[in-house]
Amino acid sequence: MILTKNNVFDVETGLFGLERGRSNRDFSKEGSWGKNKFNNAFPVSLSCYMARRGLKLVYLKLDTNTQIKHEKIDVSSIFGLDPFASELFFSFETDFTPYRTIVTGKFPRTDLVTLNKSTKSACLQSLEVKLTALPDNSTYKLPETQYGCEIVVRPTTIIYLALGIAYKLKDSPELLLDYLDPTSIRRLSTWWDVDNVISYILDLANDLDRILISVLDLQEPFVLQPVWKTIGRTAKLHENCLDIFVWSDFAFTRLFFNAAREALGKKQEIDRYGRSIIWLSRMLLDFALEGRIPHADIIKTLAYNAQTDKAFALNGANTNRYMACTELTSPRIKKDEIKNIVLGGGQNFLSPERRFDAALLSNPELFN
C-alpha cells in the first residue's frame, strides 16, 4: 500500500517547496507524479532546495563577443520572487499571458510560469525546463571533465524565445528592421524555397546576433536545466549528483546558431539548426512588420521536408563546451540529499518507463 505520510517523520507526500496551494498541482496525489509532470516539477523543487542551502545557480549568459560566460544567479531572480514567499505561485504547463497580445492563433504553453498572487498583473517569469542526464551516450567514455548532457528542444521553445525577444522590443519594433538586413529580407520572397533560403541562413544568424548585442542588457533567464549525474551510463546515481544551470534567452541561441554555422561549413543543406534560425528570424520579422507572430503557420510552412515534432537536439559532446565548469564535473547536491527534496514516500508514486535494454544493462550478472 502506498502511504501519503512518511511513517517516521509524518511528512506529507510531496516535493520540497511545492507544498499544497503553491502550485496548480497537488503533489500529495499520485496523479501529479507522472513522467512529464515530475520532470518539470522536480527541477523547481531542487531550485527551492538549493536556495534553502544558500546556493546560487550557474547562469549562462551571452557576452559582447557573442560567447557564453558563466555567472551565478539567485533562485529568486529566476522565479521573480523569493522562492518561499507566500505570494509566489508555480503554474506548470500554462501560457505566459503577457505574450497573448503578440500572438496570432492558438497560444502555446510553456513548462513553468511563476505568478504573484497578490497583484493583478500576476505573471512574473516564464521558463522552459529541461532535466538532463550526465553523461550522455556521446560522452560517457570520456574523462569526467568532458561529460555533457544531450539537450532536446521543442518548437515551443523557439516560439517562446521569439516571443520573449519581441516582447522586449514591443515599444520599438523598428529596431528589428534596423538589424535584419533589408536587402536579404526583400530577396527572401519565398522562404519556403530551400534553394532560395539556404544561402541566407548565415546572414540571418549574423543579423540576429547584431540585434542581441544591441540589447544585451535585456537578456533574462529562459531555460532551467538541472543535471543528474550517474556513474558512467548506468542508472546508478553518482555521489555528486545534482546541480542546476540556467540559460539566458540570448545565450540559448548559441546552441543552434553555432551548430548551424558548423554544419553549413561542411554541407549546404537546411538541417534542424538552420531551420530553427529561419523560424526565429521569420517570427521576429513578422512581429516587426505586423505586430504579431503567426507561429503555427511559420512552423508548418517552413518545415523543409522534415518532421516538426522537435526543433533540434544537441549531444553532450557539443553542449560540454558551453557548460564545462566545476559544477558540471562535480555537482553540488549529493545523492543522499534527494530524500530532502522528494518527501513522504513520493518516490513510490513514480512510474518510470520499463525498457528491456535498460533491464539488461542493470543486470550484468546475466552475462557472467
From TrEMBL:
Keywords from the UniProt entry: Hydrolase
UniProt-listed Pfam families: RE_HindVP
Single GO molecular function: type II site-specific deoxyribonuclease activity
InterPro entries per record: Restrct_endonuc_II_HindVP
Gene Ontology biological-process entries: DNA restriction-modification system
The enzyme's E.C. designation: 3.1.21.4
Designated name of the protein: Type-2 restriction enzyme HgiDI
The organism of origin for this protein: Planktothrix tepida PCC 9214
Classification of source organism: Bacteria, Bacillati, Cyanobacteriota, Cyanophyceae, Oscillatoriophycideae
